[in-house]
């Protein structure tokens, strides 16, 4: 399904490096668990993020369940670049910048739908679902100039591919293949997106909201921050299910943090911990009944992850919570704002009443009015806003929990750390961020974690 395009324009590849970028090494000391607040506030750093992170990395752009038929499309963002993802007549998937090459207007304002063509409102330029320019209003005027329509198609994304129903795209033709980008982390993704025959689907549409925070605060929270739940979300948990989560960091089950090239997952082995916060016994029963089947399919370790207390971020800006089944992307809108897109994912073969319960449960917990979302949003906003102070920005931030907790005597893939009360995944996240920000090309990005798994992974290795 992978599609390729020509190289990036030279003007994009040779932009001058801002002074803030040149001093990045002095702003980060991850071995000591220290980093500068400027990375959450500096406008030059943000502009470089758009180029070095969002115009380079593989980004989540949709789920295959959203575009099952030819002509089905979704519009979304890659950084601040608006894109259209559309199913082709041959069942492949392609992506294009959502901008007319004539005057730059958006060619579709819809979030999703089905189209035979996309027509720009401004001058009537019409494009097929393959991106090609088919015609325009007063076409004879253009023909008189000798214009070649083949030279004015919608600009394609450089590569597009999918894994277990999740569609990713990159704007960089030199980016490694998606399988390499995800690497060994696919082993863990299978625990959620391949736990049941038939895979997963999105239900209930997309909920959009705006939070006044830097995108990295949200991503690093989901990459592995169980510690905040026992304090931030304790009152919300009491309101939802009448129980406390204050001692969540002391749960007796085996727990880990794992990371690979900036992707991170924290999890324990309690099977239904996250799901329990929804307060619905039918959902927990569904997972308990499914667990033995998952064990047979994927092995014991992953069968205990299916709804456990856990969270995950796929670098740079896609996160999800198993059990609560919320899936989200943190789209940057400047150093101090994100646009959050949220969906509910479910097993495609789950009974309809189970799907409905999960959709309602995620709305109660992780939506703009959800009891947990409001807690997080307020924390991220004030973590960002306090950096307005000049003297405040001279004070480093600490992320040193869990030093020297790496496990080497395990068959589990990726970098494995013992315990969820840890900031190993945060350090790995920011190391990947730093490596990409400093690199001029993909070939310059250090290969700290080399993938060892085959292209697909379903059976237990531990």
From TrEMBL:
Keywords from the named record: 2Fe-2S, Aromatic hydrocarbons catabolism, Dioxygenase, Iron, Iron-sulfur, Metal-binding, NAD, Oxidoreductase
SUPFAM superfamilies per UniProt: Bet v1-like, ISP domain
GO molecular function: 2 iron, 2 sulfur cluster binding; dioxygenase activity; iron ion binding
Domain Rieske: 58-169
Signal sequence annotation: none
Name of the protein: Phenylpropionate dioxygenase alpha subunit
Protein family according to the UniProt entry: Belongs to the bacterial ring-hydroxylating dioxygenase alpha subunit family.
A Pfam family of this chain: Ring_hydroxyl_A
Species in which this protein is naturally found: Giesbergeria anulus
InterPro entries recorded: ARHD_Rieske_2Fe_2S (IPR015881), RHO_NdoB-like_C (IPR043266), Rieske_2Fe-2S (IPR017941), Rieske_2Fe-2S_sf (IPR036922), Ring_hydroxy_dOase_asu_C_dom (IPR015879), Rng_hydr_dOase-A (IPR001663)
């Amino acid at each position: 399904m992978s599609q390729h395009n020509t190289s990036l324009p030279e003007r994009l590849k040779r932009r001058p490096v801002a002074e803030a970028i040149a001093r990045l090494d002095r702003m980060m000391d991850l071995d000591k668990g220290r980093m500068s607040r400027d990375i959450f506030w500096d406008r030059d750093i943000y502009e470089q993020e758009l180029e070095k992170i969002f115009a380079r990395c593989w980004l989540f752009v949709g789920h295959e369940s959203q575009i099952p038929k030819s002509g089905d499309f979704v519009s979304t963002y890659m950084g601040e670049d608006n894109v259209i993802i559309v199913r082709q007549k041959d069942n492949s998937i392609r992506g294009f910048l959502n901008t007319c090459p004539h005057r730059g207007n958006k060619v579709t304002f819809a979030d999703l739908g089905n189209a035979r063509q996309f027509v720009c409102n401004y001058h009537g330029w019409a494009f097929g679902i393959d991106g090609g320019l088919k015609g325009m209003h007063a076409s004879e005027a253009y023909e008189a100039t000798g214009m070649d329509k083949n030279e004015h198609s919608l600009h394609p994304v450089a590569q597009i591919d999918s894994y277990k129903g999740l569609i990713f795209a990159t704007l960089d033709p030199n980016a490694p293949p998606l399988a390499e980008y995800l690497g060994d982390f696919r082993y863990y993704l299978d625990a959620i997106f391949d736990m049941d025959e038939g895979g997963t689907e999105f239900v209930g549409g997309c909920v959009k909201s705006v939070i006044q925070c830097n995108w990295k605060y949200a991503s690093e929270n989901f990459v592995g921050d169980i510690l905040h739940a026992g304090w931030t979300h304790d009152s919300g948990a009491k309101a939802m299910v009448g129980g406390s989560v204050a001692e969540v960091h002391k749960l007796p089950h085996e727990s880990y943090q794992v990371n690979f090239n900036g992707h991170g997952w924290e999890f324990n082995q309690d099977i239904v911990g996250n799901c329990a916060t929804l307060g619905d016994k039918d959902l927990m029963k569904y997972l308990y009944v499914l667990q033995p089947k998952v064990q047979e399919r994927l092995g014991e370790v992953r069968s205990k992850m299916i709804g456990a207390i856990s969270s995950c971020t796929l670098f740079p800006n896609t996160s999800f919570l198993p059990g609560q089944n919320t899936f989200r992307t943190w789209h940057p809108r400047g150093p101090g704002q994100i646009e959050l897109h949220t969906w509910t994912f479910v097993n495609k073969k789950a009974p309809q009443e189970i799907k409905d319960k999960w959709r309602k449960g995620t709305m109660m917990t992780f939506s703009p009015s959800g009891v947990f979302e409001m807690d997080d949003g307020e924390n991220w906003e004030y973590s960002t806003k306090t950096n307005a102070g000049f003297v405040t920005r001279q004070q480093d931030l600490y992320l040193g929990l869990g030093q020297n907790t790496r496990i080497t005597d395990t068959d589990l893939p990726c970098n494995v750390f013992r315990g969820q009360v840890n900031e190993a995944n945060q350090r790995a996240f920011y190391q990947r961020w730093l490596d990409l920000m400093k690199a001029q090309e993909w070939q310059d990005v250090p290969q700290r974690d080399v993938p060892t798994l085959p292209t697909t992974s379903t059976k237990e290795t531990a």
